[in-house]
Amino acid sequence: MPTSSPQVLYTPAQRARRDATAWTMVQGILAPVQFLIFGISLYLVLNSLHTGEHTDWALASVVIKTLVLYAIMVTGAIWEKVVFGQYLFAPAFYWEDVVSMLVLALHTGYLWVWWQGLWSHTDQLLLALAAYVSYAINAAQYIRKLRMARLQKPTTPDLTSLPSSGAQAST
């Protein structure tokens, strides 16, 4: 049975563009900041649902988390354009982008009901939890891709392993 080779995440040209663009650094900074905000907000949301205390803090923390999500999504789309030539749904990140659309929809839905005061605070916080579950799945997808990128060997040939064109010295 033939073995399949692992998926190549970046071509050499894409890897060079990824390494050269400042958007890679922006993503590298925003991702852990967003995850930290997510962790704090998740605590506040769960605590508010459990105790009924600090609900305003919990609701506001979801707004902050959502604004940072928008920032990372916009800058991520720019990064994807620079590296892959399209703003979204590049083959290497297709499924991550699909799930990102669900994440955005849920977070945007939260902003809408929060802004309009359409739902009870408890229902708003439950919607935030649904958005956070989708975000956690999406974050895991991206962490997996980051690990794949680190494990992927560059696809450029190793010139030291090529046979030389001249006579070889014997030992």
Structure description:
- The chain is an all-alpha fold and 171 residues long.
- The protein has one domain (12-151).
- The protein has helices at 12-20, 22-51, 55-84, 94-116, 121-151.
- It is elongated, with a radius of gyration of 22 Å.
- The two termini are 40 Å apart.
Query: How would you sum up the global shape?
Result: elongated
SSE run: HHHHH
Helix-strand category: mainly alpha
Counted by DSSP, the helix tally is 5
What key phrases describe this protein's structure?
171 residues, mainly alpha, 5 helices, elongated, disordered N terminus, disordered C terminus
Task: List the topology elements.
Layout: H1 12-20, H2 22-51, H3 55-84, H4 94-116, H5 121-151
Outline of the structure:
With 171 residues, this protein is an all-alpha fold. The protein is 72% helix and 0% strand.
